């Protein structure tokens, strides 16, 4: 117990936690009290240092970079999901695209995978404040831009230049029997021009079938589908260029001198080393206040006072 001007206070009150530690929650502080002075030195452990550095590290540059990475993640995930839904034929005319635009679908899948991987690497580099990882992220953004442009260019070129001739050649040379059957079943047609022109025989498609040829339906589908693909691809390009510029401008400002994880841990180790030295000196000074060990009464009768009438010789 200690007596002060405010009265008698206990050890818990004397070493009560400051207001900042109460706001930060349980911080497991190391308490150091210097005898002879009224100042109390509080040194907090790793959780306090990490919280403080974490809050100070979210600068405007870092927030802009995270927003940019999230946009890459959104349209990369959307592209990959649409490609996977097409591969698994979850919508009605997916089989037509798998057969007629197989190369475009493969490129869309690759572009979505690259963008998703790029966003994950960028987020990891931002969270860890790692400039080398962010440099890899910036390089992968250019690879993602290339894949997006390739998808847009191939789909636009196919839809804009002699699409009917390309479909006629593909039907005759490149489409397999299973591919033609998928197109016929999806578009409810038979043969290319007529049921007698290179048709894959099935229950609904035979020489006597009244179904129309697949040329008109396939041409209309390809026009709409390819236009949709290249429109989406070219609309992503400006946003992706903005993300590249943001990564180049903000990546160098994510970390600052002395706020990296290594610097924080070094400062923690130095603080804890100084704390250990001060605590050791404090314990040495307080040895005199330690409680004495328990001792038993002597078995000698000379010093026994419980025997009345005992007279020393």
Helix and strand topology:
Layout: E1 2-4, E2 7-9, H1 11-14, H2 19-24, E3 30-33, E4 40-43, H3 46-57, H4 60-87, H5 94-100, H6 102-127, H7 131-160, H8 163-174, H9 177-187, H10 215-250, H11 261-285
Antiparallel strand pairs: 1-2, 3-4
Tell me about this structure.
The protein contains eleven helices and four strands. It is mostly helical. It has a domain of about 210 residues. The longest helix is centred in the last third of the chain and has 36 residues. The chain starts with a strand and ends in a 28-residue tail after the last helix. The N terminus is likely disordered.
Overall pLDDT metric? 76
Distance between the termini: 47 Å
Strand elements, count: 4
State the secondary-structure class. mainly alpha
The side-by-side strand order for the widest beta sheet comes to 1-2
How big a fraction of the residues is strand? under 5%
Order of helices and strands: EEHHEEHHHHHHHHH
Largest sheet: 2 strands, antiparallel
What is the quaternary state of this protein?
Answer: single chain
Determine Rg (CA atoms, Å). 39 Å
Shape: elongated
Instruction: Report low-confidence residues grouped into runs of 5 or more.
Output: 1-45, 256-261
Separate helix tally: 11
Proportion of helical residues: 55-70%
Membrane topology: Multi-pass membrane protein
Main location: membrane
Keywords: Membrane, Transmembrane, Transmembrane helix
Subcellular location: Membrane
């Amino acid at each position: 117990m200690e007596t002060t001007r405010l009265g008698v206070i206990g050890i818990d009150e004397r070493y009560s936690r400051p207001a900042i530690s109460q706001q930060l929650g349980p911080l497991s502080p190391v308490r150091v009290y210097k005898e002879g002075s009224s100042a109390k030195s509080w040194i907090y452990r790793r959780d306090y240092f990490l919280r403080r550095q974490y809050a100070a590290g979210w600068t405007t540059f870092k927030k802009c970079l995270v927003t940019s990475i999230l946009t890459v993640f959104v349209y990369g995930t959307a592209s990959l999901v649409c490609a996977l839904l097409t591969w698994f034929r979850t919508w009605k005319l997916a089989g037509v695209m798998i057969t007629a635009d197989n190369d475009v679908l493969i490129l869309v899948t690759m572009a979505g995978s690259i963008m998703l991987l790029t966003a994950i690497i960028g987020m990891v580099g931002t969270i860890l404040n790692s400039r080398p990882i962010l440099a890899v992220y910036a390089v992968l953004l250019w690879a993602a831009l290339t894949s997006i442009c390739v998808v847009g260019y191939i789909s636009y070129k196919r839809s804009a230049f002699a699409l009917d001739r390309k479909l006629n050649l593909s039907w005759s040379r490149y489409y397999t029997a299973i591919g033609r059957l998928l197109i016929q079943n999806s578009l409810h047609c038979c043969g290319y021009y007529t049921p007698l022109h290179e048709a894959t025989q099935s229950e609904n498609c035979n020489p006597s079938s009244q179904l129309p040829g697949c040329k008109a339906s396939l041409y209309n589908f390809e026009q709409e589908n390819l236009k949709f693909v290249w429109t989406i691809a070219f609309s992503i390009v400006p946003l992706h260029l903005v993300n590249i510029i943001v990564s180049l401008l903000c990546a160098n400002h994510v970390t600052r001198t002395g706020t990296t994880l290594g610097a924080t841990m070094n400062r923690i180790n130095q603080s804890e080393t100084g704390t250990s030295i001060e605590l050791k000196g404090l314990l040495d000074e307080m040895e005199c206040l330690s409680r004495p060990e328990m001792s038993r009464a002597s078995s000698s009768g000379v010093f026994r006072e419980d025997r009345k009438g005992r007279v020393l010789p």
